[in-house]
Amino acid sequence: MGSEIHDKFGRPLVAITGCGLVTSLGLGKEANWSGLTQGRSGIRGIARFSTDGLRTAIAGTVDFLRPSPFSAPALAIAMAIAAGEEAVIEADIARVGSFPGPLYLATPPAELEWPQRKSLWDEIGESEAAGYQRLLAAARGRKHEDMASLFQFGSVADHLADRFGTRGLPMSVSTACASGATAIQLGVEAIRRRQANAVLCIGTDSSVQIEALIRFILLSALSTRNETPEKASRPFSKDRDGFVMAEGAGALVLEEYASAKARGARVLGFVRGCGEKADDYHRTRSKPDGTAIIGAIRKALLDAGVEPEEIGYVNAHGTSTPENDKMEYLSLKAVLGDHLARTPVSSNKSMIGHTLSAAGAIEAVFSLMTIRTGKLPPTINYDVPDPEIPLDVVPNAARDAAITTVLSNSFGFGGQNVSLVLSSP
Amino acid sequence: MRGNDHENEVWITGVGLVSSLGEGVEAHARILSGEQPCAACVDETTFAPYPVHPLVPLTLSKQIPKNSDQRQMEGWQRLGVYAAGLALEDAQIKGCADLLDRMDLIVAAGSGERDTAVDCKVLEMSGASDSAPLRASEILPSALRPTLFLAQLSNLLAGNISIVHHVTGSSRTFMGEEMAGLSAIDNAFQRIAAGQSEMCLVGGAVNAEREDLLLAYELGHNLWRHSFERIEQRAQRGGGFVPGSVGAFLVLEQRRHAERRSARAYARVTAVGTDRMRRTNVEANPFACVSNLIDETVAGSTGAVFSGASGVAPVTAAEFAFLDELKRRAQIEYVWPYGNILGHAVEAHFPAGIALAALAQHSGRVSRTLLGECPGRFSSVDRIIVTGVGHERGEGVAVIDGIPTRGANGI
């Protein structure tokens, strides 16, 4: 069934023709790749708000973009625009404001934040109403258009659809920490069913806000190594103690290979396959036998039509939580078998932290850059190997290696697991 | 996009609907057919000045047997998990491990209930306006239940459906107010029609009886603040929506798959179209996608419109003007804003409208009392067009047809 423009199942091949990045390491692919391959950490003490008395006070914040007035959705939009523009310009597909296809966006849930809630509260006197009635009375008193527009769930997608001129209904997806990979999967499926020739997939996350930080602290999910922020994220190490929240955005332009070729586009690589599988075991933990994660990885290989032995490198989910890293190893072992011993597996999160909704998209871009540059980004802070996780994690320093096919994993709270297979042109 | 492939027709084989009017297929079908008089169930006092359609009392353990599961959720999640269970039961899929393992889950979600008492405590203790985050960081770590986050997180409605009902083929949650419901239905339809999925459990849930939810919509002055009026009557007083507690899930299934397991089907989803117009020019035609799709699918037949209009001005008036024109051209017979009986269910609204259309197709008639006419008159059902028009963003339409009588050739 396979041909130059179809995969072995007869479906249109999905090419990547542009991508873009923003993380705590910087703006753009070049700055990010140089930081990542030098083993630099973007994790630091949180300066955005006071963390006095909180168990965790570090994150991979993006502080060089500062939309005004500041809010989480405003930063999510700013990062997505920066990454999206880099991708669209690289793809050279159209003017930045008239993208010829739909937008698939991974973005965190939106909600009113404390400064806004408090300013609303102060609009009405204490004597006039109490409790939430006071907030409602303030809202009723005058229209708060900006607040209403920004803190709706559809607002980030709406702003981006306007900015990029994408076609049709912009879709906002959330599969927690797998969202970025799901956005790519939505795009791949749309191209395969010939609903679109080109799609813009973006993952963006700006969750380093006071309440989100407290929520993850309460779930005991975060590293508490506040004294040495750059050493806090240590995936696959024996002394790992949780993930580090981080911000960023990743964007990819995907195109039907035939139409990309026809317009003379430069093809950077392919998304060969996507696999997803939901877990029914627990809200934050995966099944002890790993079947859901194993299912996602297997389905991705199957969808890509590649054998486990063809995987040359794994861009791990690798969050640095005791639970994830162990389960990810066991699941990789189950699918790749003996081949795993020959397969380097590294986690970008050791340097950029966990970018949550954006992680799948950001790490897909890093996976592609690994293929294109022949350089494996390291897992830093790997000083105390975990004997239960005997992996080649590309410890502490980047390594040269010619790679053609990469597996990129993303697993989310709520049991939503997605794996992608990317390959060279 | 239309599903052209006969084998990949998209059939509705399960409906799970819970609202202020009752729970399950029967309760809602009786209202559509006029067997039970339909008076909108509205609570005008609890959240005054905002009327809401309150949820009918549920025996949660019928669909969520473990108390430990119930405790891990907030109201909107329980409602959604309950409705999802009803849909699976209705499709005779509940408990069928092999089917559930392959079934794709697609949820339209907002977020869960905040702890409003804790919110107020933080605000009361904050002096200067910039001290609120500081107070929040002092108070929240000890005041919030550690797992409350999971009860609020958008994708955890899907997570809970997987845990309670074991739907695990895949799981996607769409967000964006009404756009969430449009995206969910669109994604399910496109995947099945293209052969990328055999069956999807798709829907959403909204708990309208929440001050934090009311606040989110009142910021933009989207709520109706007077005693209850039908959606058609609200424009003179500025418009607005009356939130409705609704859990609405559908089992959408590829025809071939449904026939193989001899599933009963209510109706067929013939087409789905979605778009997001720039509303700044609402006086122009904001319904290009609706218009195009209706032109494409309704030619030669007269349909009814189950309108998802919210009541919010000016977009509701614009939708009605557009639909009136279709009526004048005899392309449609009547327009029924289904929010009049359910309230506006935001993320769950479009799925709920499709659920009602499926039930109407199945019974073959719709009581004219729903249109404000005298009891005892009925309309036959040919083709039903369900619109979903976001109060602020997003437009969509689904065409729901009957399942043709099975022919002599045995299919």
Features:
heterodimer; A: 425 residues; alpha/beta; Peroxisomal Thiolase, Chain A, domain 1; 11-stranded mixed sheet; two-stranded antiparallel ribbon; 13 helices; 15 strands; 18% strand; globular; B: 411 residues; two-stranded antiparallel sheet; 19% strand
Protein model, in words:
The complex is a heterodimer of chains A (425) and B (411). With 425 residues, chain A is an alpha/beta fold. Chain A folds into two domains: 14-111 and 151-423, Thiolase/Chalcone synthase (Peroxisomal Thiolase, Chain A, domain 1), CATH 3.40.47; 114-150, no CATH class. Chain A contains 13 helices and 15 strands. Chain A has helices at 29-37, 72-91, 114-121, 131-141, 145-150, 155-164, 179-192, 210-218, 257-262, 291-304, 322-336, 349-352, 359-373; strands at residues 14-23, 26-27, 44-45, 58-59, 103-106, 171-174, 198-205, 248-256, 269-278, 313-315, 345-346, 375-376, 399-400, 405-412, 416-423. In chain A, the strands form three sheets. In chain A, strands 1, 2, 5, 6, 7, 8, 9, 10, 11, 14 and 15 form an eleven-stranded mixed beta sheet that branches. In chain A, strands 3-4 form a two-stranded antiparallel ribbon. In chain A, a hairpin with a 2-residue loop joins strand 1 and strand 2 (26-27). The longest helix of chain A has 20 residues, at 72-91. The radius of gyration of chain A is 21 Å and the shape is globular. The mean pLDDT of chain A is 96. In chain B, the strands form two sheets. In chain B, strands 1, 2, 3, 4, 5, 6, 7, 8, 9, 12 and 13 form an eleven-stranded mixed beta sheet that branches. In chain B, strands 10-11 form a two-stranded antiparallel sheet. The model of chain B is unreliable at 407-411 (pLDDT under 50). Chain B is α/β, with parallel strands linked by helices and 411 residues long. Chain B has one domain (10-112, 153-401): Peroxisomal Thiolase, Chain A, domain 1 (3-Layer(aba) Sandwich). Chain B is 36% helix and 19% strand. In chain B, helix 13 (315-328) links the parallel strand 8 (303-307) and strand 9. Chain B is globular. Classes of the chains: A alpha/beta (425), B alpha/beta (411). Strand 6 (171-174) of chain A pairs antiparallel with strand 4 of chain B.
